[in-house]
Amino acid sequence: MRRAALIAVPYFWLLVLFLVPFIIVFKISLSDAALAIPPYTPTLRDGIAAMFAEFDFENFVFLTEDDLYWKAYLSSLRIALLSTFLTLLVGYPIAYGMARAPEEWRPTLMMLVILPFWTSFLIRVYAWMGILSNEGLLNQLLIWLGLIGEPLQMLNTNFAVYVGIVYTYLPFMILPIYAALDRMDGSLIEAAEDLGCSRLQAFWLVTIPLSRNGIIAGSFLVFIPALGEFVIPSLLGGSGTLMIGKVLWEEFFNNRDWPVASAVAVILLLILVIPIVLFQRNQQKQAEAEQ
Amino acid sequence: MRRLSWFNVTSLTLGFAFLYLPMVILIIYSFNASKLVTVWAGFSTRWYGELIQNEAFLDAAWVTLKVAVISSTLATVLGTMAAYTLVRGGRFFGRTLFSGMIYAPLVMPEVITGLSLLLLFIGIGLDRGVLTIVLAHTTFSMCYVSVVVSSRLISFDRSLEEAALDLGASPFDAFRLVTLPIIAPAVISGWLLAFTLSLDDLVIASFTAGPSATTLPIKIFSAVRLGVSPEINALSTIMIAIVTVGVLTASLVSKRASLRQQQDAQAAERATG
Amino acid sequence: MSQNVFAPWDDPNAKPLIRFQNVTKRFGEFVAIDDLTLDIFEQEFFALLGPSGCGKTTMMRMLAGFENISAGRIELSGQDIGKVPPNKRAVNMMFQSYALFPHLSVWENIAFGLKRDRKSKEQIDARVAEMLKLTRLEKFAHRKPHQISGGQRQRVALARSLAKAPKLLLLDEPLGALDKKLRQDTQFELMDIQEQTGTTFVIVTHDQEEAMTVASRVAVMDEGRIIQVATPSAIYEYPNSVYVADFIGDVNIIEGKAKPAGEELFHLEWAEGRAPVKAASQQPFSEGQTAHLAIRPEKIRISTEKPEEAVNLFEGKVLDIAYLGNLSTYHVELPSGQVIKAQTANTRRLARRDITWEDPVWISWSATAGVMLDR
Fold it and tell me: How far is C40 from chain B (nearest CA, A)?
């Protein structure tokens, strides 16, 4: 009896507040926009039967006709992919350095990586606004060095979005790679060198393959949230920065077109299913390998 | 142990500089006397003074704190139950769906979670305010709590619970007297995680907050959209300081506990030779 | 049989404390316990012995109430305990990992079960003190489990499981985590405590030496079945199968065809053109039946000179010598290629090392030295 209650309470909570809302999003993506509150028909108040009676794919047709949307999807994919790659380039040497650091430093280094994660995401993004703006510190520094004559436009560009994503998601990349490198037996490198590898060859042939799972996990952990990112493109990106999270937000809050916003969400979800399933499979394989 | 090569030293230095410099700069400029945020005009705590007098910010901070405490506590209870069910529940109807619903919010874009919850609240005619934000935050942070707690439960030696049952404890007593005290650190980290997630959340709160309740991140976001402001610098500094002190204390406490445990173990070794 | 020998299993009127009746346990397709029937008597020190995966731990967990049985019936003092949950059974268990509660002190660990019975404070204090004394842990009462040594932890686990004075105490590999020297001391300690408290002990172990040392009876298990239940000496001297003979101690197995040669005497044709092995057996074998002669190495004599009278006498050469300090084991290869192990005690300090590698030697044994087995 107690066991049933133990299962039922969180189960019911998630059904009502997670699954049902999804069904509603899916449903509304198939309804018509209306000038009312809520601005779509038919509503839940018209009865469940009525809601499901009038399926209508015109919002999805609309998404394919207006090139804003598929451009936003493509651009989100491109930005997420490229910034994942950049995060890997920045994160790997840090994780590597941490794994090679003396034993007694490692807990401190770990904490230094985790600490930013506990600080507000919004504040960390905001910190870059002051650095990247036209009168910002970076431009001042570059002018002072004599590298440029006038301020570069960095804030409100895709460049700033890349910086923002790399900066905020860096811990997600470092931690799994560090975990993989930390587990690695140091004598493997010595064995490779003993068998005639140069340092660099040993790195390529032993270290990289053995940290592969960490690299994959870290990349998914950056790629998946970056794809639906809203705060970074809206604070650091410009009007030309198209990301689907931002489009959804604007469709909802500015245009008040709920059915289209819902349709955008449904498609974003469909796109995300692929990396999520791949990620899950990678994690499972790793868990099995460890057993 | 090989000494750190200069390559590793460089990558660590540059890496941590990249992680910390932006925040350090933000903190320095919060003490700037000038309204122009990029020009240094001497040290001043002026913006902290103005911040304290800003009623709108204080109200929002109060709402945020209230939401965070309630939602993280609820999320900890629900998340621990869910973790226990997942790890110890055995088979039950809809188990796959349940574990799917636990893991999905972790990878769900916030815009989608926010949108879907808002549509639900409107659909059932619930007015948006503190209650709706609490419901929304509890829902996604209970999933984080359950992941943290279940990873502890998986490594938990099950024979401890069996020993309690064997000695005559009812299943509930076994949980209360044995399991809970041992997994307490994970439950506490889960609560802290849920609390921080709630404090930080902008997107989901924006969807589910109504005119009657605004949270601090929403306030900061609308202020920041217009550009850098010294007041926000001051506010950010305070928030960074609180988090830093909190995390440092937590890690010191756990480090001392593990150190003591090590010493005890060594003493035990010596005592028996 | 004399009266002061403890052997209730030989008494047809004795009532068993535990009775397994055709018990079967399945995990999905896998049969962990296969139609098993067994009686265990009061005050016994009973050992379940077998390789890992033989079902011995499953049997113990069924007694404790952590596994349901798929078929059959388990009785404790004549009552079916199949439906009784673990926290309502008068059975306590000492776990392999000890399962000491890490957040509670030694004293609180021992008191845990007593508190569940809502005993008065005085009763609890007295009983815990008694247990601490029994296990010589008085000095450590207020330490936490991680502040004491492995051997002390083992004693805390024992004290905790004995505190409620259970009818039956289950011990799952109780000494597995201790090093060899400590294990031997602790074996005798366990036997003392068992005798003092008069509790029935059922111990699960994969260590045959441990089972032989502590137990009044040993059950040798394999693949969910009990192969033989008997006293340690009976198991060693009269194994009922090659499996048991091989599992317990060191043994030579000579396989051949039996041929009756007088009253309870057989010839074993084991190699073409060689003299048959003569062996006594109470179990009858028909002419030409396959039989295995199991013979312990210490029952085989080895000498450099041909002994005068010997029932079974063979010549061979020394292949290997294992010097164990108190004993030496010689591996002797016969001309047929068969290798026979012979063991002698090194009773003299400066052993005359008159036997060395490649030496031709004679090995001999009597007709009653071995056991003839049909499987």
Answer: 20
Using CA atoms, how far apart are residues A72 and A50, in angstroms rounded to an integer? 33
CB contact under 8 A, B142 and A13: yes
Q: Which domain holds residue B59?
A: 46-272
Other CB atoms within 10 A of residue C27 CB: 11
Q: Could you tell me the residue ranges of all domains in chain C?
A: 8-245, 250-373
Closest chain B C-alpha to A63 CA, distance in angstroms = 17
Superfamily of domain C8-245: P-loop containing nucleotide triphosphate hydrolases (3.40.50.300)
Nearest by CB to A126, which of B103, B122, B232? B232
Domains along chain A?
Answer: 64-256 (1.10.3720.10)
In a domain, B85, yes or no: yes
Q: What is the pLDDT of residue B1?
A: 43
Q: Is residue B257 part of a domain?
A: yes
Tokens 């845990």 belong to residue: C112
Tens digit of each residue's pLDDT (9 = 90 or more) over C78-132: 899 988 999 999 999 999 999 999 999 999 999 999 999 889 999 999 999 999 9
| Predicted structure pTM score | 0.83
What chains are in contact with C, requiring at least 3 Cβ pairs below 8 Å? B
| Average pLDDT score, chain A | 85
CATH architecture group of domain C250-373: Beta Barrel (2.40)
C87 with B169: Cβ contact below 8 A: yes
CATH of the domain at B130: 1.10.3720.10
Question: Would you mind telling me the total number of residues written for chain C in this entry?
Answer: 375
Nearest-Cα residue of chain B relative to residue A120: B200
Q: Is the pLDDT confidence value at B107 over 70?
A: yes
Q: Which two tokens stand for residue C150?
A: 């492995």
Q: What residues of chain C lie within 8 A of the CB of B269, using their CB?
A: 149
C136 CA: distance to closest CA in chain B (Å): 14
- B258 to chain C: nearest residue by CA? C146
B20 is a domain residue: no
Whether A122 sits inside 8 A of B220 (CB atoms) is yes
Which of C92, C99, C144 is opposite residue B157, by nearest beta carbon?
C99
3-state secondary structure (DSSP) of residue C342: strand
> What is the mean pLDDT of the segment spanning A11-21?
93
What is this model's ipTM? Answer: 0.87
Q: If you measure CA to CA, which chain A residue comes closest to B79?
A: A10
C181-203: pLDDT as tens digits:
888 888 998 999 999 888 999 99
Is A249's pLDDT higher than 50? yes
The total of structural domains in chain B comes to: 1
Interface probe with B: pick from A94, A112, A123, A165, most Cβ of B within 10 Å? A123
| Strand A32-33 relative to strand C339-345, pairing | unpaired
Nearest to B12 among A94, A133, A227 (CB): A94
Residues 6 or more apart from C230 whose CB is under 8 A from it? C217, C218, C238
> Is B37 within a domain?
no
